[in-house]
Amino acid sequence: MILSKKIVVLAYSGGLDTSAIIPWIKENYDLNVFALVVDIGQSFEDLQDIEKKAISSGAIGCQIIDLKEKFVNDYVYPLLKIGALYEGSYLLGTAIARPIIAKAQIDFAKKIGAVALAHGATGKGNDQVRFEMVYASLDSKLKIISPWREWDFKSREDLLKYLKEKNIPTNATKKKIYSRDENIFHISTEGGVLEDLWNKASKDCWVWTQDVENAPNDPEYVVLGIQNGYVNSINNVKKSPYQCLKQLNKIGSIHGIGRIDIVENRLVGLKSRGCYETPGGTIIYQAIRAIEQLVFDKDSMKWKENLALEMSHLIYDGKWFSPIRESIQSASNVLSEVVTGTVVLKLYKGSVYAVQKKSVNSLYLRSYSTFSEDNVYKQSDASGFINLYSLSTRIRSIQKK
Amino acid sequence: MILSKKIVVLAYSGGLDTSAIIPWIKENYDLNVFALVVDIGQSFEDLQDIEKKAISSGAIGCQIIDLKEKFVNDYVYPLLKIGALYEGSYLLGTAIARPIIAKAQIDFAKKIGAVALAHGATGKGNDQVRFEMVYASLDSKLKIISPWREWDFKSREDLLKYLKEKNIPTNATKKKIYSRDENIFHISTEGGVLEDLWNKASKDCWVWTQDVENAPNDPEYVVLGIQNGYVNSINNVKKSPYQCLKQLNKIGSIHGIGRIDIVENRLVGLKSRGCYETPGGTIIYQAIRAIEQLVFDKDSMKWKENLALEMSHLIYDGKWFSPIRESIQSASNVLSEVVTGTVVLKLYKGSVYAVQKKSVNSLYLRSYSTFSEDNVYKQSDASGFINLYSLSTRIRSIQKK
Amino acid sequence: MILSKKIVVLAYSGGLDTSAIIPWIKENYDLNVFALVVDIGQSFEDLQDIEKKAISSGAIGCQIIDLKEKFVNDYVYPLLKIGALYEGSYLLGTAIARPIIAKAQIDFAKKIGAVALAHGATGKGNDQVRFEMVYASLDSKLKIISPWREWDFKSREDLLKYLKEKNIPTNATKKKIYSRDENIFHISTEGGVLEDLWNKASKDCWVWTQDVENAPNDPEYVVLGIQNGYVNSINNVKKSPYQCLKQLNKIGSIHGIGRIDIVENRLVGLKSRGCYETPGGTIIYQAIRAIEQLVFDKDSMKWKENLALEMSHLIYDGKWFSPIRESIQSASNVLSEVVTGTVVLKLYKGSVYAVQKKSVNSLYLRSYSTFSEDNVYKQSDASGFINLYSLSTRIRSIQKK
Amino acid sequence: MILSKKIVVLAYSGGLDTSAIIPWIKENYDLNVFALVVDIGQSFEDLQDIEKKAISSGAIGCQIIDLKEKFVNDYVYPLLKIGALYEGSYLLGTAIARPIIAKAQIDFAKKIGAVALAHGATGKGNDQVRFEMVYASLDSKLKIISPWREWDFKSREDLLKYLKEKNIPTNATKKKIYSRDENIFHISTEGGVLEDLWNKASKDCWVWTQDVENAPNDPEYVVLGIQNGYVNSINNVKKSPYQCLKQLNKIGSIHGIGRIDIVENRLVGLKSRGCYETPGGTIIYQAIRAIEQLVFDKDSMKWKENLALEMSHLIYDGKWFSPIRESIQSASNVLSEVVTGTVVLKLYKGSVYAVQKKSVNSLYLRSYSTFSEDNVYKQSDASGFINLYSLSTRIRSIQKK
User: Fold this and answer.
1) Cβ atoms within 10 Å, residue D221
2) Average pLDDT, chain C
3) Which value does ipTM take for this structure?
4) Please, where are the H alpha helices in D141-278?
5) A353 touching C, CB under 8 A?
6) CB of A97 within 8 A of CB of A68?
């Protein structure tokens, strides 16, 4: 295909924003727009439809790339394995999606010889930073187009009016209460009633998961097999990490698991409120922690929490492609080598309880911690231990006098 | 009272172990035993009974000291305010009780001129270390008697037999399945079926809290007022921190809140399994976190997690009376100054959800995070921000080529 | 004084940049300029001269505020006490000067009812961020004027030409090789030959300190008294912290002490090279560390290093007026309470050696660490200690088989 | 060789202590003693002599294993690369020697079918813990004999008398003032005059390095090539890391480099004073830091300091063979991948100055940090950056009113 104009690769979702971006770029830049759809498990319309939609919006082409397995293996699991929770509770479901999408854009742009990249993230959010940090990491030569920081549109109405002027069909409606982001790991909901913190999240703030009041009255028990930090079987049926996550999303959603309703500090200095649903991720998170209890010594447990804290901020802050992320992930992988075992989880009314657990690498042995004599632990050792353990404390006490 | 022998102050609980310790010390040391009962909210028999019991076991005296309010204010709250969770989940209910008891022993010993201290902690556990670390900190001159590391008794049967020989009455029975520790903050259960990790915790492993399946089918909403990190009102009724904790224990227990069943790394190198119930503490923990979301900036949130991690290990490891604990608590107090506000919590089937929250110190303002223009945040600033934020990343990318 | 125009308070140094800023603001804003000189120990011309100069540049007034003692006590010492070194070596001499200057500007602006603040920091450096972070912290209502980001001047030549056009006298010359910043704590030198990292720093890169080759061939011994982390006597003569620092600058400079030549990461993403001289600060830093060795236990030493690392980045990054800085400083102050003692330092050819040290709070006692028997340490305790200390390690080893 | 008795492998040095241990074990245990000498660069007498000496003391055999290259590559460099300094200054020269010696003992014991391990570390020091932690990690089945904790000897005199009784020749003298440990990385000196902290270290406290006053009056410049964190050339001559360290020890010693005289916190709770000489290590440490300045971004620099702090305590505390050490080393290795370049160091009178430096991975580019316009950094971006960077600060300031 010989094109008279150079190409920009747009991270295309099929939604109103990216649909408007196509004609807007064509009008404001001397560029053709290629729509790239990265499939990481978000629920979108029939795939053919999204291609048609992109073309009818004016794109010169649309490519759908399936990265679902890769997303779960190479992006989601590094977070789950180390247990990264941003500000104590957020499993980073949106943050972790950005690097894989942005990298796919760059890879595709290189393949087709494109000269620019565009995304539909708004000017007040984290995602613009995350997209552009990846662009900066992987190819700082490509031009970046960030329409929400460039155009004068301020609202959905503006975008709808613009599309109408351009005769581009859309099934978007004026009223869209919430801003949402979805992938196989989570769905987020912001805006609407949530903007007033004194409002309870309403029923329609939640998409995937059952209200806990409507969740089954009987608990469900699920057996997870874990290998080196990856859940690879459910009820003794082996599956890929992606397939496991998908199935656990279903099971977890039924029991109302994985909801959080938080106010968080955005990277750009604002606070915002979000309702996040991560049912399968929450179950996997708990399952990994349960095995860690058996196989990590005290130092490893504490060190892991340090790594998780650092990792959570790095990922939230868009620093996936960075030496420090690789360093932390490497440190985490060493620890995860022993996270192998089986956990029985009880799922009930929004909660996950690890009720049975075992591991070939367990450091727990029944006989060690009971009162009866054994060969490993001699109670008399405790006196010597305490005397030295408290020695500097005793010296301080003595010197004070 | 003129005594022919010097005195040891025993941390007395009225249980089998400390009952046997009284005659054993008298027999093995040339000492009188004074039984000190520190009331930190544990449920014990009628107070007169415990005194009688101590005397009938051979103590020369028994003193009950009520430190319930002090325990909650000065020991429990420093942990709740910073959010210390040992190994990710344990609120440190037993660990935090040791320093106040041991300090009370020392204070009392000084008052009556005693020469020794004794405790009933076993030789495989953390508590012996915690007791003796406090002794080392506050008065390294007093002799320490730790019967479980000294005598030859190995079981309850041995102790019962010994008491019988000594004609000391006891209502203890041969069969006590679980080892328990209780105070106003929590109750712990170890031993019995829990020793096999593949056993589910049985119904009788739990003492305070309702099974979630039996918890009410309707959620309960509770309004907590928080001032500088302390919960000081429930449903708009002002109460002391202790009274609030007490009431929240009741409410939380009904809804099955605050149970954990974990394997932890003991300070002495062993792993052990425990079932811990901290209903009120769990509710307060969540309430404080909810206000923090409104009032802490990003740096404070991350720093707080560092402090909490350090604090959790310090307290678990018996280092309450240490410069580093005072340093961390001081750092925490600075942050907590702004933790003031109101939270509405939904309690349901084992879970606590912060559904509404507000604070006079909130850094969230609706207008800031919405899409509409405002004076505080200009979207155009984001380009400059991203350019510098990603600058070293871009430079790395450029230099690589 | 009734003024027809509102006032901007300029952080005025008397140098070329801030001299040009006065007429430029008057020309470009409808404002009078008030020149504020904050004296934190920088060497400037006769004070009357600087006032005259400001007036002759067009300022409506000039005020000199002496904050030297306050600067050393309240800004420099919090860094020295905790031992903050940015990226392992930089004592933060420029970074720590910004908050006190910017706060003085705001205080003065409030006093005289000014409406704006201006500074002469360039658009590629850290200082613009540091100034404006303080403005943001303390009064976000005042307008900020940052001429280097606003005007079109690009060089000293441009500024000189502009001043000539405006008939403003200046003794600045076209050729100024280095960019410098000075206060009682340090002097920095950037630019010129330093821009090529393969160039050695030339003789003229150093201002305060003697080249080590020319330093005296005999060592000098100096006795410092330290109280709660503050040096308060030199050779047994009591002085204020400021006076001590001033004298130690002189002594240290003679011996070539306190030079570093580093490449650092600026807050704005660039790397830059600087030669920093901090003679007195380096001596004080070493003296405090020497006492810490005597009085800090192992936990405190490690915790202190964590605090120092956090503090160094906070201060470098312009976050002086922040909850996290207050939190860390509070944590640091608790530790410093015991940092009291006497150190004899040997100063020789660029190096500081603590050759003798003592403290009333010392945890070192000769008898403890020697081989002879004592009452505090029993060698037999070591077996018990090692057995429990290595227990989880042994268990891992056993379970592996 | 058919032996009537089982064998213990002794970590043998040829000194008085381990010489006495041989007959003592034979007398007190039903074991033959095999003397293992691990050569990690300590200066000992002619090798044949040490073998003879072992045999004449009663050992059934003596084996010398040369692990000098391995020691430098696999033990010393992991510390130098991350920059581990215990309590701010100690390069861990003794601590890092223990794991390689203890591992060699175990490997050898397995090879010859020995049943026990013995070491000559005293009962008040760190080394007993370090030896036995390795034993616990790698083979918890072998019996451990720690004579200093077992026998009744208290002094050198006791040992000399014992050897005389046993007719074992020795050239040890009654008076040995200092306790020393030596390997290719460092030599340590404890005891004697050092026990009084108010004593200056005397001339004979230092073994390897020249007094700075006697060091050459002219500086020496040395060019080090660094590859992935390893110094692999000196003045453009390629050598192995071990050979480089050896040569830099010589050069550094001449210039009085690498001396420290500190009081440290021992693992067993005591403080002790030591004079450590690490001339080559100090030079290498500085050289690596110099390249890091060019190639690490701000996040990596800070993270590295965290890793170094953790590593320093782990190694000091005898935890070489542990998951957390492997985790940290792995994290460190990722960062070190870019630590490649050339440094010119000036060595003069006890100091090391990195005066020139370059790296193919440098993130510094002259044009970026100068005032002239460039394509990478636009000064106008700084306004946007500052506005968002200070946003939460401004919001706090606004909300306060």
Assistant:
1) 14
2) 94
3) 0.95
4) 147-150, 156-165, 241-254
5) no
6) no
- With beta carbons under 8 A apart, name residues in chain B contacting C323: 296-297, 299-300, 334-335, 338
Kindly report the backbone phi and psi dihedral angles of residue D211, in degrees, each rounded to the nearest multiple of 5, phi listed first. -60, 140
d(CA C320, CA C98): 9
Which pLDDT tens digit goes with each residue over D41-96? 998 767 788 999 999 999 999 999 999 999 999 999 999 999 999 999 999 999 99
Q: Can you list the alpha helix ranges (DSSP code H) found in A144-239? A: 147-150, 156-165
**Chain B contacts of C391, Cβ < 8 Å?**
268-270
Mean pLDDT of A51-68: 96
pLDDT of C308 above 80: yes
DSSP E strands in C228-370: the ranges are: 230-234, 237-238, 259-265, 271-277, 341-348, 351-358
The answer to whether A354 touches A345, Cβ cutoff 8 Å, is: yes
Could you report the per-residue pLDDT of C220-276, keeping only the tens digit for each? Answer: 999 999 999 999 999 999 999 999 999 999 999 999 999 999 999 999 999 999 999
Q: Are B186 and B278 in contact (CB under 8 A)?
A: yes
Number of Cβ within 10 Å of residue C169's Cβ equals 10
Token reading at C266: 């600026």
**Residues near B333 by Cβ (< 8 Å), separated by ≥ 6?**
B81, C330
Three-state DSSP class for D82? Answer: helix
3-class SS of residue A221: strand
Residue in D45, D16, D44, D20 with CA at minimum distance from that of residue D33: D20
Asked if the C-beta of A370 comes within 8 angstroms of chain B's C-beta atoms, the answer is yes
Neighbour count for residue A74 (Cβ, 10 Å): 13
Q: Give partners of C (≥3 CB pairs < 8 A).
A: A, B, D
Nearest partner of A388 among B21, D124, D325, judged by Cα = D124
Interface contact C327-B324, CB threshold 8 A:
no
Residue C26 gets which letter from DSSP? H
For B211-250, the pLDDT digits (tens) are: 999 999 999 999 999 999 999 999 999 999 999 999 999 9
Q: How far is Cα A37 from Cα A337, in angstroms, rounded to an integer?
A: 34
Closest to A339 in 3D by CA, of A393, A292, A302: A292
Minimal C-alpha gap between A365 and chain C (Å): 9
User: Which fold is adopted by the domain C187-296+338-358?
Assistant: Argininosuccinate synthetase, chain A, domain 2 (3.90.1260)
Residue/partner pairs of C240-243 with CB below 8 Å, 24 or more apart: C240/C69, C240/C72, C241/C69, C241/C72, C241/C73, C241/C76, C241/C77, C242/C41, C242/C68, C242/C69, C242/C71, C242/C72, C242/C73, C242/C184
As a whole number of angstroms, the distance between CA B355 and CA B352 comes to: 9
Give the Cα separation of A61 and B348 in Å (integer).
Answer: 51
Strand partners for C348: C351
A280, A288 contact by CB (below 8 A): no
For residue range D13-50, what is the model confidence (pLDDT) as tens digits? 998 999 999 999 999 999 999 999 999 999 876 778 89
Q: How many residues belong to chain A?
A: 401
How many Å apart are CA C39 and CA A64, to the nearest integer?
64
Tell me the C-alpha to C-alpha distance, in Å, between residue A370 and each of A291, A364, A373.
21, 11, 8
pLDDT in tens, A142-187: 999 999 999 999 888 999 999 999 999 888 887 788 999 999 999 9
Closest-CA residue to A368 (of C381, B351, D234, C399): C399
- In CATH terms, the fold of domain B6-182 is Rossmann fold (3.40.50)
Q: Closest residue of C to D87, CA-based? A: C301
Q: CA angle at residue A322 from A318 to A328, to 5 degrees?
A: 100
Domains of chain D by residue range: 6-182, 187-296+338-358
